[in-house]
Write a structure and sequence with these properties.
- The chain has helices spanning about 5-15, 25-30, 35-40, 75-95, 100-105; strands spanning about 55-60, 65.
- It has about 110 residues and is mainly α.
- The longest helix has 21 residues, at about 75-95.
- It has one domain.
- A two-stranded antiparallel ribbon has the order 1-2.
- Helices cover about 55% and strands about 5% of the residues.
Length: about 110
């Protein structure tokens, strides 16, 4: 098991067995660095069911409060749709590059 996975398990076990406290208290009780705990939350590896005192996580797009990840559910949905639309547009329009052989065949010219 990778070190960060062990740390994540420690934090999860601690949160299951005790009331939510602040990040500093969780860090002190588990020995896991506060920044690592915050990264677990931002990466979505650790999902809070209620806010932790003294810590607010905001959606990077709209600023609404969230419990984990980088985006609220609405912004995540919109970003996914925008990405799908962009991929669809790019696949329809092609790369915009042709090889010299393709151009010759298309225009019937030879050097």
């Amino acid at each position: 098991m990778i070190e960060w996975e062990k740390e994540l398990d420690l934090v999860k076990d601690f949160l299951r067995s005790s009331k939510l406290t602040g990040i500093a208290e969780i860090s002190a009780a588990t020995g896991v660095d506060s920044e690592r705990i915050i990264n677990f939350i931002k990466e979505g590896r650790l999902v809070l069911t209620t806010p932790i005192s003294g810590v607010e996580f905001k959606c990077e797009r709209c600023g609404n409060l969230i419990l984990s990840g980088r985006f609220c559910s609405e912004c995540a949905k919109n970003l996914s749709q925008e990405l799908r639309d962009n991929i669809s547009f790019e696949s329809k329009s092609g790369s915009g590059m042709l090889s010299r052989d393709t151009i010759k065949k298309k225009h019937g010219s030879e050097d």
